[in-house]
Amino acid sequence: MRKPLIAANWKMFKTPTEAVAFTDAFLPLVASQTHAEIVLCPAMTSLAATLAATKGTHVHIGAQTMDWHDNGAYTGETSPLMLNAIGATHVLIGHSERRQYFNENDTTVNLKLKAALAHGIVPIVCVGEHRKEREEGLTNDVLKLQLSIALEGIDPAAASPLVIAYEPVWAIGTGLTATPEMAEEAHKFIRAEIAAALGHHLAASTRILYGGSVKPDNAAALCSLNDIDGALVGGASLDPASFAQIVINSAA
Ligand code: 13P
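Above: the input record for the complex with 1,3-dihydroxyacetonephosphate. Below: its predicted structure, written as tokens.
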């Protein structure tokens, strides 16, 4: 009942030319991969080129962040209306790098989530603990707090597009991956928190992605687990063959 979602977070990589070179190589490799929803999240300056290059295919394009206002004097920001206008369908919200370097927090995540849902953009809300928090046994406390604030005031009737990405910060870009057992345990906990906030019905249909050093060789083991509904991929999504292999292996 939950269609897997495999998303590429290109972070601050790829010019428009490089993005189109990627899609040229990538699209034929995943032409028959319809088991999963595939989303590419390029930098803002590559959104238009990537949208044009994937038009008419089953590959969707998302932004890596957005502001929650419709418009206004917010220099440098991009609004949900602007993403809608160019055809971007998804948005990453509260990635740990946004939290670490750009002062995002659970409250701004909540505002962005509400804005995305109000404008029909699929929100991929990122949560996850730091290494010290895991070592101190605080993983569930951290996830509980992040989710309780992120989901505050969300109408369950309007929240069916919601996607959560569990990205343990210590696993991002480090080559360290949560073991399938650790990931499954966190995903189960997240689903229970969604149920507490928004009801069991919504929790059962909400996709929860795993992110943090996902590679072609660990994608199958992670994605085969009950509560893992796909992956959010950084480094290994920059190469078309590698990201295509992750999409293919996620079906295994
Ligand atoms: P890596 O796959 O490079 O660890 O990055 C994960 C991530 O941050 C995806 O959003």
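Notes for the reader.
The chain has one domain: 5-249.
The pocket of 1,3-dihydroxyacetonephosphate is lined by residues 9, 95, 167, 172-173, 211-214, 232-236 (CB under 6 Å).
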